[in-house]
């Protein structure tokens, strides 16, 4: 297949995962350039992938006619500026999570993408884990009935994260957007748009140099009448439970799924129609590819993005879908600061 869709990647951490397409048959994608702030990082990227023509200025990627897609894997606070610049230059945009760090920027990106007729996809890996996909299938098949309650969590001790990516301390990263986006987006995927949130938070004290709240408990009311809870905790000793997980509880059945980096994942369902209501367990092998063992999830969303560009369709997490999560996270910060529940008003296309 002819390589008609050149990709320029900003960021050489998880961004390096995209280079697999250069050795993948049956794809139009080809990674043709990387951008990083340090020349030494680009040298390592070139040695690891064979990709040349790299740069320390992302604007050089935007001027290249052989690049149709810009993939943004830079620190969170740079996403909006780079996405808006890429769309303005006529490029399709892939953005790793979080989409942005405020709803104003997310809305501007959504509107600009529509105005320019370009595709934006948020690379939220949780929607592409095998265990989570299995749980979603139970819901879509109607086996859970009406969902009345849901919960999701992402608990990750930050020590190794700060060591691997020190920008998270230097910037610093906002873990409401950069962490809680995972479990909250997962529930939006299952439950739909958020109507109201009530958020509590604190600092754990393991990392005194980090200045913001980094442990969160959030009660959620969805527009469909369902309720849920989200836990995002990052400044504590890693507890003995899966790093990520979700539970979807309905009046015909319930399902739970989990994910931990480089470990097998699980999906377990219990249905009212099964005699004795015995649990059905599915176990999936660990993904050992890519940064943090999420390479297969990246492959799945990149394949979807390619089909959307070729067929002029929308990714399941386009800019408007991504805006739902960011708007709710904005409301979570407001709730944390005021101590009160906050209504969520997500702008429409």
List the helices and strands and how they pair.
Layout: E1 5-10, E2 29-35, H1 39-49, H2 58-62, E3 69-72, H3 79-88, E4 92-96, H4 103-116, E5 120-123, H5 130-140, E6 147-155, H6 159-164, H7 167-170, H8 175-178, H9 181-191, E7 194-202, E8 215-222, E9 227-233, E10 244-250, E11 253-259, E12 265-271, E13 280-284, H10 295-311, H11 319-338, E14 342-343
Helix pairs in contact: 3-4, 4-11, 9-11
Please give a structural write-up.
By secondary structure, the protein is an alpha/beta fold. The chain has two domains: 141 residues, Rossmann fold (3-Layer(aba) Sandwich); 188 residues, Dihydrodipicolinate Reductase, domain 2. The chain is 32% helix and 25% strand. The strands form two sheets. It has a nine-stranded mixed beta sheet with strand order 13-12-11-10-6-9-8-7-14, covered by helices on one side. A hairpin with a 4-residue loop joins strand 8 and strand 9. Helix 4 runs antiparallel to helix 11 and helix 9 packs across helix 11. The protein is globular and about 60 Å long. The two termini are 35 Å apart.
Oligomer: single chain
Radius of gyration: 20 Å
Strand content: 15-25%
Order of helices and strands: EEHHEHEHEHEHHHHEEEEEEEHHE
Describe the biggest sheet? 9 strands, mixed
The CATH class name of the largest domain reads Alpha Beta
Helical proportion, percent range: 25-40%
Strand order of the largest sheet: 13-12-11-10-6-9-8-7-14
Measure the end-to-end span. Answer: 35 Å
Give the tally of β-strands: 14
Shape: globular
Low-confidence runs: none
The overall pLDDT average reads 95
Task: Return the CATH topology of the largest domain.
Answer: Dihydrodipicolinate Reductase, domain 2
The assigned structural class equals alpha/beta
The CATH fourth-level homologous superfamily of the largest domain: Dihydrodipicolinate Reductase, domain 2
Total of domains: 2
Q: State the helix count.
A: 11
Judging by the overall fold, what is the CATH architecture of the largest domain?
Answer: 2-Layer Sandwich
């Amino acid at each position: 297949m002819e390589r008609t869709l050149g990709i320029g990647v900003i960021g050489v951490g998880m961004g390096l995962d995209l280079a697999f397409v250069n050795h993948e048959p049956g794809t139009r994608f080809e990674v043709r350039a990387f951008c990083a702030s340090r020349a030494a990082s680009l040298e390592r990227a070139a040695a690891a992938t064979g990709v040349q023509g790299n740069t320390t200025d992302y604007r050089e990627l935007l001027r290249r006619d052989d690049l149709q897609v810009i993939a943004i894997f830079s620190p969170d606070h740079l996403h909006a500026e780079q996405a808006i610049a890429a769309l303005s230059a006529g490029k399709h945009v892939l953005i790793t999570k979080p989409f942005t760090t405020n709803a104003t920027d997310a809305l501007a990106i959504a509107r600009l993408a529509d105005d320019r007729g370009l595709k934006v996809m948020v690379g939220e890996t949780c929607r592409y884990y095998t265990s989570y996909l299995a749980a979603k299938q139970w819901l879509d098949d109607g086996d859970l009935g009406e969902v009345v309650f849901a919960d999701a969590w992402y608990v990750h001790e930050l020590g190794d994260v700060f060591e691997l990516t020190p920008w998270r301390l230097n910037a610093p990263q906002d873990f409401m957007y950069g962490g809680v986006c995972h479990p909250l987006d997962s529930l939006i995927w299952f439950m739909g748009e958020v109507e109201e949130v009530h958020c509590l938070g604190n600092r754990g004290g393991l990392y005194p140099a980090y200045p913001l709240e980094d442990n969160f408990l959030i009660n959620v009311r969805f527009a469909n009448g369902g309720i849920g809870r989200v836990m995002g905790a990052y400044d504590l000793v890693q507890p003995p439970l899966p790093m990520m997980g979700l539970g979807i509880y309905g009046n015909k059945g319930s399902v739970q799924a989990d994910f931990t980096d480089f470990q097998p994942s699980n999906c377990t369902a219990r249905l009212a129609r099964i005699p004795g209501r015995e649990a059905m367990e599915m176990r999936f092998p660990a993904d050992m590819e890519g940064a943090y063992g999420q390479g297969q999830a990246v492959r799945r969303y990149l394949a979807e993005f390619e089909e959307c560009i070729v067929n002029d369709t929308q990714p399941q997490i386009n800019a408007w879908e991504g805006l739902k999560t960011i708007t709710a996270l904005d409301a979570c910060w407001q709730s944390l600061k005021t101590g009160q529940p906050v209504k969520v008003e997500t702008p429409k296309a």
